[in-house]
């Protein structure tokens, strides 16, 4: 039976980690939809037209590690304002969400646009400084040079672009449960998310 968990929120809010752990916990498939926009952004950096890149995108091409750089993140948030690019990525995400066996999707517009009928909707937030600190630590851990002030500026620029775009802006669905992870450990955030999922099953 299909069961969809939609998790939205700004960059480095903890939504990716929560999504991965929930999927493992319940045996659901997981799609990090940011990777779709990152893949299109990376193609744009190579000179490919973003709409053509979005139409040609194949799930197998989503190499998480290569796409998780600050430059690709900024490119992703630029292609993400183009309505035709978003439309080209819609069917794949919806089909993934309704697969049998359950699915967790995380992004910016899963509860509002991609899966308004999702059984569970979470909106994960944390203040910008906390998110920048987490992203900075994560980049250093992966051996990527990073400067905290730059990471904070990047996160804030992306927040603004994601919230102010007219097509599918970042905002909580009216029926989403909000989870502020600013002062939470991963274990605490996961426990809170599980409690919401268990109440809907
Ligand atoms: O989640 P992540 O930080 O990898 O996403 C990169 C960018 O892709 C975001 O800043 C946002 O502009 C875009 N995105 C989006 N809608 C989604 C997921 C990501 O617009 N569902």
UniProtKB/TrEMBL annotation:
Which residue range or ranges hold the Cytidylate kinase domain?
5-55, 65-192
Which positions does UniProt annotate for ATP binding?
9-17
Flavoprotein among keywords: no
GO molecular function terms attached to this record: ATP binding; dCMP kinase activity
Location in the cell: Cytoplasm
Q: What is this enzyme's catalytic activity, as reactions?
A: CMP + ATP = CDP + ADP; dCMP + ATP = dCDP + ADP
- Superkingdom per UniProt: Bacteria
Keyword entries, A-Z: ATP-binding, Cytoplasm, Kinase, Nucleotide-binding, Transferase
Leading EC class: transferase
Q: Which GO terms describe its biological process?
A: pyrimidine nucleotide metabolic process
Where's it mainly located?
A: cytoplasm
| EC number in record | 2.7.4.25
Q: Does the keyword Kinase apply?
A: yes
| GO cellular component terms, semicolon-separated | cytoplasm
User: What family does this belong to?
Assistant: Belongs to the cytidylate kinase family. Type 1 subfamily.
Q: What is this protein called?
A: Cytidylate kinase
What is the scientific name of the source organism? Answer: Thetidibacter halocola
Q: Which gene encodes it?
A: cmk
């Amino acid at each position: 039976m299909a069961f969809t968990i939609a998790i939205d929120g700004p960059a480095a809010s903890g939504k990716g980690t929560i999504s991965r752990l929930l999927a493992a916990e319940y045996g659901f498939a997981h799609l990090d939809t940011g990777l779709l926009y990152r893949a299109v952004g990376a193609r744009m950096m190579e000179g490919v037209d973003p709409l053509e890149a979005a139409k040609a995108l194949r799930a197998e091409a989503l190499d998480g590690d290569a796409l998780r750089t600050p430059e690709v993140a900024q490119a992703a948030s630029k292609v993400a304002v183009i309505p035709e690019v978003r439309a080209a990525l819609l069917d794949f995400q919806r089909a993934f969400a309704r697969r049998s066996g359950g699915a967790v999707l995380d992004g910016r517009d899963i509860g509002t646009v991609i899966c308004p009928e999702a059984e569970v909707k979470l909106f994960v937030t944390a203040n910008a400084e906390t998110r920048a600190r987490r992203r900075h630590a994560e980049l250093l851990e992966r051996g990527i040079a990073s400067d905290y002030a730059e990471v904070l500026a990047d996160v804030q620029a992306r927040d603004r672009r994601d919230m102010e775009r007219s097509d599918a802006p970042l905002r909580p669905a009216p029926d989403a449960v909000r989870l502020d992870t600013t002062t939470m450990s991963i274990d605490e955030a996961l426990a809170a998310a599980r409690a919401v999922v268990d109440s809907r099953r």
